[in-house]
Amino acid sequence: MGMNSFAQTAFVKGIVLDEKNLPVEGVNVSSRINTTQTNEKGFYQIAIPSDQKITLEFTHISLKKASLKVSLKPNEVYVFNMHMNDQQEQMGEVIINSNNKKTVQGIITFEAKDIRFIPGANAGIENVLKTLPGVNSNNELSTQYSVRGGNYDENLVYVNEVEVYRPFLIRSGQQEGLSFTNTDLVQNIEFSAGGFQAKYGDKMSSVLDITYRNPTQFGAILEMSFLGGSLAVDAVSKDKKWTAITGIRYRNNSLLVNSQETQTNYTPTFADIQTNINYQASPKWQWSFLGNISQNKYLYQPLTRQTNFGTADAPTALAVYYEGKEKDKYDTYFGALKSTYQVSDNFTLKFIGSVFHTIEQEYFDIYAQYRLGEVDTNIGSDTYGDIAFSRGVGSQLNHARNDLDALIANLEVKGFKNWKQNQIEWGVKYTRESIRDRISEWEVIDSAGFSIRPPLVLPKNDEPYQPYSGLLIPYQYVSAINFTNIDRFSAYAQWGRKDNLGTNEIWYNLGARMQSWEVSGDDLASNFQTVFSPRAQFAIKPDWKKDMLFRFTVGVYSQPPFYRELRDYDGVVQPDTKAQKSINFVLGNDYSFKMWERPFKLVTEAYCKKMTDVNPYTVDNVRIRYAADNNAVAYAQGLDVRLNGEFVPGTDSWISFGYLKTEENIDNKGYISRPTDQRLKFGLLFQDYMPKIPSLKLYLNMVYNTGLPGGSPAYADPYLYQNRLNDYRRVDVGFSKVFIDQKVGMSNKKFFKNFKELSLGFEIFNLFNNQNAITNTWVRDVYTKTEYAIPNYMTTRVFNLKLNMRL
């Protein structure tokens, strides 16, 4: 749809290297209308006319001439590192077809090739998203994230236009294993933190839209590290009609989990295989299949744990000794078939069908005995650092036998029509969700030989001071069996147009979504509901000397409940649960400018959400439990700022800042912070290289988040407990030695002649060894009847080696 041009120029930039991979100063880079020279670091940047085939010539007094043919879109910035030698002339050709309309939609795009090298405990797309403003996560072991006050269940994820899902029962980040998205297969990545168009689904917070690549020749990518490995293979038939990419991944989190305070026997297995097959049946018909099989086995046997807390003057410690184990298993199967029919040059139809099947079990029996007391601080003592005096002793037994089997099927038709400067898009979709769920879990707590009853349950147990003859009941108990079916019908239509307002360029989009759904099942009264969601976007690029773009978005974002949102604190499905609704306002500005003679962009967005029919929830690590009664209203407001550009010539980095305030009012008791009230966020993603040795690269990933409300016991009244966890601070750094770079060319050495890329990386996770807590363990001192919050810390400093190869 489109923005045909916001400017009439594009840019080519990069580094010129010689045969020894050293930067070359004084290389003339010229086109028919412009000329520049490389600086002492070998860096150059040249402006060229857009939408034209331009030949760039690279000349140097002691090296053979090289040339490059390029055709770029307006405002396109193409990075090309030229490798010059004294043996022969070199020629290359690059044609870039960009989509500038993403800028006016407020969508952020990423280079897939760079994401593979960004360090993180869970490297991949989600790892990079967490450096963006408005995207928050306090759990490096999880691939999940919250956006602008929403929770993990409020984010849409698409791969090749097909919505993908995550397992239901996972309660901690270390159980997750692998994200659905395989970074080795990705071509395009687009992300919107809010205000997205009607063509995207019915969620309230964000959309991540990923497209897998369609290969043009045989190739392979291999990665190996202490955390596992992956292999991706590209295949193309002789007649070019069939193409396929297949990826296999294996991951083992032992390296990370063993850095935590709890000593364990930990034997996880996270593995999956994905394939994307494309068939060009005719010039008008194209078929594609996306398939995924994933098996995550989580075997966990805790042994001991000691956590020191308190102050330097009065250090306190909790020592825990465990028996038992946890055995979880998550098997998922996913298949999607898509057919695209080009009716005419301006009219396209797409037919999509997909099936997702997950079989999950969560079994554990863990018995824990603890001692709470004062720490021996006498350096010369044999028991230095151990508990010298016990203030409290006790035990607890946790049990679960949870099983879930879910089958989700989708059928969808989409249409795209271009008409002059207008674009019309529409779609209809039917979804059938069938869930069979058994939840049975309980916890028994004992303190100094006395069983602790649940709070607020009468009669109160006041032993040993008063005799008690009531029933012994678990401290927490949830038991339910649910056979639930949900039928959904959704549709959308939207119209977009690019136009002119005087000498200013404008773009706008109007659209609406609707969804009707019915919840049915054993012992459930069928309930039919419908929601309607209108949305509008407007963008203007003033005819100013400064390159600025302004955006405004307003819309209603309704989120009909998924199965997890229908299940209340007691595990019972509530079919009358309504869709949560949010009215979103987003005002954004993009300012493109030059600094240090290099391009930069400052993106600023202010947003406000007014939410009704809110479904309150609690968060324990990554597990969310809903009240399922729509008894709250809420709001979220904030400011996101991101500055990205070439802080180092030839590399893309960014700094981000986010401010957020989100509160909810439950049953008209007054406004309190929501569990996702992440007030301040700073993120930094920085890439660098050594000027004299450009093959030695550095990647820095830094996140700082202020503390979230949380850590309270599950039974606590949020109006009485509004304490916050400590701030989350984490720095991951990676160093990479590049032996072969695809941009530079193939190696002349025999052993490496078939490699396009080869690098060896050294990574340090949690560089400064910060102690970040995700939740609290609550321990009761029977004598003072005080409950202590013992922080559950995340991973400490960890070292990793990574080998990357591309054929």
Descriptive report:
The protein is an all-beta fold. The chain has a 22-stranded antiparallel beta barrel. Strand 36 (632-645) and strand 37 form a beta hairpin. The radius of gyration is 28 Å and the shape is globular. Mean pLDDT is 86; it is low at 1-7 and 91-99.
Summarize the structure.
The protein is mostly beta strands. Helix content is 3%, strand content 60%.
Structural class: mainly beta
**Uncertain runs with pLDDT below 50, 5 residues or more?**
1-7, 91-99
Strand tally: 45
Proportion of helical residues = under 10%
Alpha plus pi helix count: 5
Question: What's the helix and strand layout?
Answer:
Blueprint: E1 9-17, E2 28-30, E3 35-37, E4 43-49, E5 53-60, E6 63-71, E7 77-79, E8 82-83, E9 90-95, H1 101-104, E10 108-111, H2 112-115, H3 125-129, E11 135-136, E12 146-147, E13 155-159, E14 162-163, E15 186-192, E16 206-212, E17 219-225, E18 228-236, E19 242-251, H4 254-257, E20 263-266, E21 269-280, E22 285-310, E23 315-344, E24 347-375, E25 387-419, E26 422-447, E27 450-452, E28 476-501, E29 504-521, E30 524-541, E31 547-559, H5 563-566, E32 580-595, E33 598-614, E34 617-620, E35 623-626, E36 632-645, E37 653-666, E38 671-673, E39 680-689, E40 696-705, E41 728-740, E42 757-765, E43 773-781, E44 786-793, E45 798-806
Parallel strand pairs: 1-7, 1-8, 6-9, 13-16
Antiparallel strand pairs: 1-4, 2-3, 2-5, 5-6, 10-15, 11-12, 13-14, 15-16, 17-18, 17-45, 18-19, 19-21, 20-22, 21-22, 22-23, 23-24, 24-25, 25-26, 26-27, 26-28, 28-29, 29-30, 30-31, 31-32, 32-33, 33-36, 34-35, 36-37, 37-38, 37-39, 39-40, 40-41, 41-42, 42-45, 43-44
